[in-house]
Design a protein that fits this description.
single chain, 2 helices, about 500 residues, mainly beta, 17-stranded parallel beta sheet, 3-stranded antiparallel beta sheet
């Protein structure tokens, strides 16, 4: 205990993760009083065994942190600390959890993640106060029946283990609110799981499910559900019974169809369907009025439902902020996309779009839009109404010029016209369209040519030093003249160039 005498008397501020009010340290300054220790932290101390001095405080110790050491076993004396409420020892070299853990009858939180533990002892059931168990990243193959007697358990984390099934009576853990079983070998869920009436978050991502477990439809309080990176082929209509669901991740499966009853998930805010085999989306998707994020990239979609946006009050994704439909087979976008007035990020890369609907100009809150690798030959004038645009990617298309209304995009910080572009903004100049005689914007990068992988050419290779030397020297970006009279008086035929308020470096 002498080594404690050097620790100064102080109240240490705890991290948010630990949520501790303070830490009591030894003090022999007043009347010879006995030290009171409730919290000890030996994290990141390169320890190979549990310090023996800990056992001197077995009557008062409530929280013990042994994170990130090289401890291989836990001594029996440790389990005499019956006042212990939290035991944290992740990222060590433990190979087993001794049966003496049953002595910790007041233990509420146990963290044994990132060790080599293969199983829980059956008498873990004696730790009846356990509320939180974090045992991720261990080679645990199964849970003992005794584990299902931890009736006060509210949070269980068993990610990245070797679980192939759960005990049949797993549903006894009826107080569970969070259950994470990502990266295991699960193929089914026990029927008793319907008894988890308080479950709010369920993570079954990166397992071996081929069907959506039917029992999930009975967990009516579920708010977050991860089923990404499995082998699920269809989503049944029963999923619509999860009316409290807010987050649904079904990415990286083999889903070919989405049932129309998905509209029953009326509270859904985030829907992730990336990297599947969807050929169409149900019209009823427009009924998900609270949706803010929709990702359907990397599918086989040939069209988008028209009621994805709508002027009617009960239809349309009017709150949608992020929409990604890249890497599909879309040849056009529905005009109703203009009703997505809350949209901030829109991506439709690697499709077959030859034009954009004029109504896209109504998406005036978009700040980032990417249309890379399509077949666009022109852009509508209405794109100039999207005045909050800061980043616009048009590379690998077939554009001959840009509409003059681009001069209204005051906040534009990056305009990508080529994958090999050396600067985020390349100066533009005005010229008359050879057919319509209307003013358009262009530079040496127009007309765009279809990209050939074997013939990549940087914009610097085709740079015209005579035409752009002044701008290069001044390291200017494009700014636009907005007063029509001044535009008419400018005889140079170029958009006027000003010193920028900010400088954008080449990435």
């Amino acid at each position: 205990m002498d080594n404690y005498s050097t620790i100064p008397l102080q109240c240490l501020e705890m991290t948010t993760k630990r949520k501790l009010i303070g830490r009591l340290v030894p003090c022999r300054c007043f009347r010879g009083e006995e030290e009171v220790i409730s919290v000890l932290d030996y994290s990141h101390c390169s320890l190979q065994q549990v310090p023996k001095e800990i056992f001197s405080f077995e009557r008062t110790l409530e929280e013990l942190y042994l994170d990130a050491n090289q401890i291989e076993e836990l001594p029996k004396q440790l389990f005499n600390c019956q006042a212990l409420r939290k035991l944290s020892m992740p990222d060590n070299d433990l190979s087993n959890l001794p049966t003496t853990i049953a002595s910790l009858v007041n233990l509420k939180e146990l963290d044994i993640s990132k060790n080599g533990i293969q199983e829980f002892p059956d008498n873990i059931k004696c730790c009846k106060c356990l509320s939180v168990v974090e045992a991720s990243v261990n080679p645990i193959t199964k849970l003992p029946d005794g584990f299902t007697q931890l009736l006060n358990l509210t949070q269980l984390f068993l990610n990245d283990a070797f679980l192939e099934y759960l005990p049949a009576n797993f549903g006894r853990l009826s107080k569970l609110r969070i259950l994470e079983l990502r990266e295991n070998h699960l193929k089914t869920m026990p029927k008793s799981i319907h008894r988890l009436s308080q479950l709010e978050r369920l993570d079954l991502g990166s397992n071996e499910f081929t069907d959506l477990p039917e029992v999930l439809e009975q967990i009516h309080n579920l708010k977050e559900l991860w089923l990404d990176n499995n082998s699920i082929q269809r989503i049944p209509g029963s999923i619509g019974k999860l009316r409290q669901l807010r987050y649904l991740d079904l990415a990286k499966n083999r889903i070919e169809a989405l049932d129309a009853d998905i509209s029953g998930c009326e509270s859904l805010e985030d829907l992730l369907l990336s990297s599947n085999m969807l050929q169409q989306l149900p019209d009823s998707i427009g009924m998900l009025k609270k949706l803010t994020t929709l990702k359907v990239d990397d599918n086989q979609l040939t069209s988008l439902p028209t009621n994805i946006g709508s002027g009617r009050p009960k239809v349309g994704l009017s709150l949608l902020e992020e929409f990604d439909c890249s890497c599909n087979e879309l040849e056009s976008l529905p005009p109703t996309i203009g009703y997505l007035t809350s949209l901030r990020t829109f991506a439709a890369d690697e499709n077959f779009l030859s034009e954009l609907p004029r109504e896209i100009g109504n998406c005036r809150n978009v700040t980032v839009m990417s249309l890379r690798s399509n077949k666009l030959e022109f852009l509508p004038d209405e794109i100039g109404q999207m005045t909050k645009l800061r980043v616009l990617n048009l590379s690998d298309n077939r554009l001959k010029n840009l509409p003059f209304t681009f001069t209204k995009l005051k906040d534009l910080a990056a305009l990508w016209l080529s994958d090999n572009q050396s600067k985020a903004l390349i100066p533009l100049q005005t010229e008359a369209h050879p057919e319509t005689k209307q003013r358009v914007l262009t530079n040496y990068m127009f007309p765009q040519q279809p990209r050939h992988e074997e013939d990549y050419q940087s914009d610097s290779d085709s740079f015209n030093p005579t035409l752009w030397e002044e701008q290069r020297q001044q390291r200017m970006t494009v700014a636009f003249e907005f007063e029509e009279k001044k535009e008419e008086e400018d005889n140079s035929g170029k958009v006027k160039v000003f010193q920028p308020l900010y400088r954008i470096s080449c990435l």
